[in-house]
Structure formats: structure tokens, C-alpha cells
Amino acid sequence: MNEPITPMGRRIRISALLILFGLAVEAISFLWSSPLAFFLFAIGGGGLMLIGILFFLLSLVRPEAASS
Amino acid sequence: MALSVLVLLGLIGLAAILLLLLFFRPGVTRTPEGKILAFMTLFVAPGLALAGGAMTHLDHSKSTEFCLKCHVMEKYGKSLQVDDKEFLAAQHYQNNRVPRDHACFTCHTDYAMFGDVRAKMRGLRHVAVQYFGKPPEKIKLYSPYNNRECLHCHLGSRTFEESSGHRGEDVSMTDLKSGKTSCLTAGCHDVAHGVDELEDAEFWDPAASAKGAEQAQAATTATGASDSTATPEAP
Fold this sequence. Notes:
- The complex is a heterodimer of chains A (68) and B (235).
- Chain A is 81% helix and 0% strand.
- Chain A has three helices and no strands.
- Helices cover 58% and strands 0% of the residues of chain B.
């Protein structure tokens, strides 16, 4: 925790957090037996995870990430 | 809980641990191994969880229990228990002609290319209408029921092929196979669910039926025993 956070590290943390929340929502959707569970999975969990994945992939192709 | 769900929850747990590691120690990604770990954790694991989750949810949505959760489907669920041979859906359900846990999906999917996908897309719309819209009072099929769905199971079965009704003057096997004569609306199997006739219908009670069958068997056994006592076999 004490090591300095680089811009890349900050983006990884944001991606990790988004995906973590997405996975938590997905896990909840498995335990919920309502037909709405699929909407929760697709829109809630899937949305958060896709944003997290895209954020990570975009951070890889940014110029400062490429130079580091 | 299904094994697939347990496996997915295990994958989610593992991914969560790795994600927490990346969150608290983002510096590990400076090494080549750390970069691979980050790629696996931030791309591969969530991708697998998404694909597996979608498949699990789609599989669950094929269950009879899932279909009958909506209020508008209650009557259709009740129609599966009608004790009348004229009720087609009830006969299929009660005699295991369709798997009971996937009864609705077995008859109402399209047995054609991408039929499952089409059925599930329609299902998504139904769930959306149920919760966020106004479901219609009386539901109906999008298009007339296709014989293809019946023939998917019945074609080639002995009772179907040898039935005189399917080879009569009015109905020919060729017309049935081509769909020219509808199985449901040609006057032969025209009561599918019969939801308008449920008020006067009698219902099948599996527990009572099993008990009745046991009692009948016991009575037969007792009669047979008393008969053999009364009239011993000649040497």
C-alpha cells in the first residue's frame, strides 16, 4: 500500500474494483431465483465487468502505458 | 445448487482474490509475470465468468419453474395437471412425453437453426413486459404452432407412424410432415392447454394416484392369496 501509485497502477485499481463489483453482482444473481436475475446479471454485473475490462484494455494502449 | 453454479462461484471467488491482490498491490504488474497475472485477472477470468454466467442463466430459464413464476402463466401451469386425455399439454406433461422440469421450453422452442436463441430473446421480452410493462390479459403465440415442433419427437415413433388417424383419408402423413395439415388446428389435437376450460376440469393428484395404485395392487395380491388358499393346485 505504501508504494507510489503510477497512472497505470491507478487504472488497474479502478478496473479491478469495477470487475470486483461486477463479479459480486453476478454472484448475487445466481442466488436470486427471480426471472429478473438475468437482467441483474446482464445489465448490472455484465455492464460493470465490461466497463472494467474495457478500461483495463484501453489503459494498455495509452501512450504513457506503452512507454512505461 | 447446480454444479455449474458452484463451479462459477468458485471461479468468481478465485478471481475476487486475485482482483484484491491487484487492487492493493498494483505494483506487481511491473514484472512480466505480473502483467500476465493482470491480463488473466482483468480480462480472461471476467470473460469466463460472463460466458459461464450467461449459459447458466439461460439454462435456468428453460425450467418449468422459471416459466411459471410469472402471474400470466399460472393458468398454463395449472393446465398441465388437468385429468383429461383431451388436454394435450397435460398428457405430455403427466406421461413424461416431455421432461417435466423443462416442459414449457421443450414444446415452445423452435427446432430450427438458432431456435433456442430466438426462443430466449422472446423470453427476455416476456420478462421485461411482465416486470416493466403491462402483460396482456390473454397471451397468444406469435405464429401458428408449427408441426415441426411436434415431429421433432413424434416422427418415427411407432404410435405416431402407425396411428390410423395419421394415415386416414382426411389427414395424410405427407400433409402432416409438410405442415399442410396442422396437428393442433385440424380438429384432432385442438385442446392444447385449454385454459378457458379449467374451471370445469378435474385435476390429477400424483400422490392420490400413487396411493390408489398401491391399494389396488394390495387388493389384487390379497385376492390372489385367498384364491390360492381356497383352491389348492392339484398334484
